[in-house]
Amino acid sequence: MVWSVMGLPHEDRASRVAELAAMGFTWADFEDEKYWIDQLVTMDGRTHELLMDASQVLWHIFDKAARFVIGRSDLYEVLSIPEVLWDGLDCLEPNEFGHMSRYARFDFAIAHDGTIKLLELNADTPTGYVESSVVTPWMCQQYQVNTTNDQMANLVRDAWAVEKPDYVACVSYGQHLEDTGTVDMLAKHSGLDVKMMDCLELWVDNGVLKDANGSEIKRLFALYPKEWMAIDDGGEAFAYSIETHQVELFNSLHAIILQSKGLQALIWGLHELEVDIFDEKEHAYIERFMLPTYNKPIFDHSYVSKSMFGREGGSVQMFDTDGVMDAQDTAGFDSSEFFSRVYQKRADLPEVQLAAGDFHLLTGVFVIHGKPCGLLGRAGGLITGNSSHFIAIGVRENETETKA
Questions:
Q1: pTM tops 0.85
Q2: Residue 305, strand partner residues
Q3: For residue 250, with 0-12 CB atoms within 10 Å meaning exposed, 13-18 middle and 19 or more buried, which class applies?
Q4: For strand 195-198 and strand 167-170, is the pairing parallel, antiparallel, or unpaired?
Q5: How far apart are CA 347 and CA 302, in angstroms?
């Protein structure tokens, strides 16, 4: 069996939440919501090995597909990439192969029978880093369960040793607990001496990006969705600053190509055409681990519709075997008013029985500095939205290893 649940919530939750806050995870409880579930879900070792292998091959598949897109405005348009970013994508040199983004996360549906299907890739601004890199090893140690998440901090250090940002920013730094905690932990794990700031304090002066004090910013890590440069005030000036090499942004600008869910439709189309951009093994992995995805609604039933740049479940609509919409995230922001939609064959998340009830489990796999390295569990409804919970995922030893 792939999934197993261990433990029960401790009676003294408050003391554990306080301990987590001291470790940098300050949003375990947020207002009246218990975001963190004090139990451990475990995945069997063989499934974990297969998942890590699939993630590595898929990562290279996405990288190849993204490089196929660079320089083609027709494909930028199909992927709903804002036109304000096109010149930058054309004139800037992408990172070396396998590192177009150095900080990303795949999201998978992994059924109880071990079937693994990729739902999407967040290759630009994934959160859940503190939950995975700090809380998950803490939980696994308590239950004496294996984890690969303890690799994450070292990989961030290696990635930022290459990128060497001077400034680190997110929107509402110091006020938004999750985003602030995420960038603070990334900066801490990098080991670099960086300046922390709010994205809203950034401004552009004749193409030069500056902080609130007027100091020039040359190298910036920003937990800021790049597609919003087409919408936010000052976004066009920010994009110009990047494309003219006056500031270097991390993740790199090309991460926007990987971020677009339209890239999954492109990969699937290239696979159906048996294009030799992918080798035989990669075609086999696309067929096995990816879902049929298209730019048009060709499905009659059992499919999902979502914005190419939707986040936290916003814009997701799920249709059942009769073609009737049976789930929709009305709480998240529907970005499809700005960006096109994709249509993907439906793969439901597995259900797990927890102390607080039955939940659907989404499995995230972080890819940092080109290496799959950490699991993130999210427990919620059919759609994993902003109201879902975090639960740590550990890895059980294979049965043969246990008996030995």
A1: yes
A2: 317, 343
A3: buried
A4: parallel
A5: 8
